[in-house]
Write a structure and sequence with these properties.
Distance between the termini: 58 Å
Largest sheet: 12 strands, mixed
Shape: globular
CATH topology of one domain: Rossmann fold
CATH class of one domain: Alpha Beta
Strand order of the largest sheet: 6-3-7-8-9-10-11-16-15-14-12-13
Number of helices: 19
Length: 497
Amino acid sequence: MKTIITILFAKLVRTRNKKWISSPIKWQKKTFNKLISSASNTSFGKDHGFSEIVSYEDFKKKVPVRDYEGLKPYVDKVVTGEKNILWPGQPLYFAKTSGTTSGAKYIPITRESIRTHVNSARDALLNYFLKTKNYKPINGKHMFLQGSPKLDKKNGVYLGRLSGISAHYVPKLFLKNRKPSWPTNCIDDWEEKVDKIIEETVGEKMTIIAGIPSWVQMYFEKIVENEKKTISEVFPQLSLYVYGGVSYEPYRSAFDKLFGKKIDTLALFPASEGFFGYQDDFSGDQTDLLLLLNNDIFYEFIKAKDFLKGDYERISLKDVELNVNYLLIISTSAGLWAYNIGDTVKFTSKEPYRIIVSGRIKHFLSAFGEHVISEEVEKAMKTATINHGVTIREFTVAPNINPDQGLPRHEWYVEFETVPNDINSFTDTLENEMISQNIYYKDLVLGNIIQQLDVVNVKKGGFNKYMKSVGRLGGQNKVPRLSNDRIIAEKLNNFNS
């Protein structure tokens, strides 16, 4: 019965979604007008002349691009309990995330925006069921590795991690089969939590497992170590792994080994600021994401290379080009306006609009003018691991401006699952891939400005120790792929000594 209900509902949702998928520009214009109209009487709307905005060109003139620091004066007012600042009324929640210069960030989530988070996650699963005709997971147990659902209160507004907030909105249809239990999900210590989750899931009919790859990998490895079996042997009904937030490619070979057989994967693009996309096609190896236009989000785009130079043009969806690296700018029903979330994307299709997440604008490496982005280092690592038959747990790249010997260089800190037989050949592959992808890097190497990159072998568990040392072990936390400083590198060096 549950399967029949799910299929019928999935078909209904598919019919609804065809409306905005088939008319994307029209839908974006509708969203734009709705957002401006809704917020015209807020403090932000009055300060920026929303009542006079009748076009996207007007909006660009009146509302500058801001990151969290730029929007913080308004957010601070919301946090103190003031109403009608960024969006009518007060938010339902603050999604608390790790911050930058100002400490913790408080991202508002409103009654309107939380609905889009919940519906998008639901639609992603429903679409998967319809496209693949794999309905078996519906009747099994589902495990979501996430942050604690315990919420604090700040001036009348609930406060917590996005994944913890989302735990309060699991559809009743799936609530009975959900793992882990509520008390286990509330455990703060990540390692204790994983051990308890293992107790609750091993022996159960698990069909769907979801979570950020690095933390799910830790969960899987503990199970394999305890049971002396592959994950597919421990969970024979498991047929879908759902992930989001990072590229899966650096983890794919390790997961294939842990699974012991092919398992379907479903890619999502959620963030505290909004739910932007999900994988809607499973016909090949590509994991492009359908850009969601039904989520009360108006999108803008800036060419990443121009943004880094400080001289850029803002464009709307209708003017984007394929295979160009864009910085993603959003305006939402949570009261974020021309907001730079820091993620970069590339369009792979315009019928429908599909994207890949290429990295973070703040996580680029340009210590020497090379402008290396996450997508490039992940592609290089994928090629190297495949060519040399190795698997890795995690990696990050940092500059070494003053090495003990020779010219400056990039240092790749890699925690291997299986170490290459020939580390020099592995390093050469990484180097050649970077040279082929990035003309600036190539010029620096050929011009003897920097020397060949160096691979630093991180001891097993090194990245987990680092994340624990900075209070970011588990949950939604991710290791930055790139840094322009050596803060992470030096901490990893300490754990290696």
